[in-house]
Known about the structure:
12% strand; alpha/beta; 49% helix; 15 helices; eight-stranded parallel beta sheet
Amino acid sequence: MTRAALLKLARGGLAMPIGTDLLLHEASDPEAVRRDGRGLGEVVVASARRWQTPLAIPLMDLRTEKSDLLAFFGVADEERDRFHFDGAPDAHAVEALYDAAERPFPVENRAQHEALRVVREHRDLVAVGMAIGPLSLATKLMADPIPAIAFAAREGDEAEEPLAVCFRRCMEMAEITVERAIAAQLQAGAQAILVCEPSASVAFLSPRQMRGERHLFHRFAIEPHLRLKRIVCNAEAEYFFHDCGDLNDEMVRLIGWELHPAMLSLGSSRRLWEDARHVPDDVVLFGNLPTRQFYSDAAMPGERVAEMTSELCARMRETGQPFIAGSECDVLHVPEAADTVREKVDLMLRVARDYFEREGAGEA
């Protein structure tokens, strides 16, 4: 996978969801499959075939890196999802985490790695890795990260407040953990890495804190990703960035121009045809139809899905920006509305593909 190959896919009229979770829940025991590398890889392959895309995107399971980190601290598996640090981890523990990069991974991570090897058995598919972003992982390590981030943004004595120290150490541990996750996936054969950073948003980083040359968004969102991107690109893979958080125009501009991912996936709160003005013309925009609402006919009837898909495709074609029509995030299985969700995903893809066939794929 190269940026040029991705641009060719986008200009060829590709439409797809991030929909592996839907295929996973067609299994009789999804949880068992999630922990079995061969079975998980076959689900990822089946998902790519089902949605007719060469991009084999895995489960967007953003728990695995937290589980890996907390395993190092001896937190029991059943406690990891709800665990938060009460205070700043000891600096020596952070140093020890650096030195423990070769420790065994938890079973879910190992399954993720094996799944990539399974995908690589299919030469027509692109094996995409998945990781949570450092900021989003750090916010999962604290019960209330927002005031901690605010203190960390300040200078002088306030920057040494216990909350600020805790957040900075959580950020350091998060980046170490994400780097380890990405390196293992690259070694397993990932040809691109999709890094999900929903906490890089106005919910956690106030626009008022985006002042100065090295402001908060740059320090905690852009700079860690630049370091991670260097690792990915050195492995001759591509860096995909996903952020379904609430962003402002400046945040989108910084992601586009400073980070310059091969693909930028955004949530439905953004208008992609307007965001095309804020990013370089070789960044593929992905998304961003409101698939989180597909479970509800009241909130998102089929007619509205078709209308929004047609509008998005038409407006994006006017911009000339390379674009993949797809979901705003991963499309999750909803037990009581499984058929409804699948029908609307199929409708979204059918309308997009009909548009590209009718109007011609590629840039305006």
